[in-house]
Write a structure and sequence with these properties.
Radius of gyration: 13 Å
Strand order of the largest sheet: 5-4-6-3-2-1-7
Structural class: mainly beta
Strand content: 35-45%
Number of helices: 2
Number of strands: 7
Helix content: under 10%
Largest sheet: 7 strands, mixed
Length: 122
């Protein structure tokens, strides 16, 4: 599935993100991929703020997910294991979620409160 991309700034770090803004693209996410290029991820965009949880049933690579509120601030970051049904949820309503290779955020000392810039508007 080819998705549009956008350039984000996460704590000053440049990220090329595929944009999953439809129900179909959000449901498919990064399933069945074996790798991600450096500084590349997937941005999930929701029409309305909410408490949306994620799992990794058919996802083959370990990921970290940053939950992002309507103001562009990261609320929390969770590490997710491949092919797991464990739910990972935001601590408060979000408008966006950014999945990156596991450890990407911690390696750059990015955590809750970090601002994500250039987010597309739903």
């Amino acid at each position: 599935m080819l998705l549009p991309t956008t350039q984000l700034l996460v704590g000053g770090q440049s990220v090329q993100a595929e944009v999953a803004a439809t129900e179909q693209s959000r449901s498919y996410g990064l399933m069945n991929r074996s790798a991600l290029p450096d500084n590349h991820g997937m941005l999930f965009v929701f029409e309305h703020p909410g408490n949306v949880c994620f799992w990794m049933k058919d996802t083959l690579i370990p990921l970290s997910i940053a939950f992002i509120d309507e103001q562009g601030k990261i609320t929390n970051i969770e590490n997710m294991q491949p092919q797991s049904l464990t739910s990972h949820c935001p601590v408060r309503p979000i408008r966006y979620a950014l999945e990156m290779e596991q450890g990407w955020f911690s390696a750059r000392q990015i955590g809750p409160g970090t601002v994500v810039e250039n987010l597309p508007r739903p």
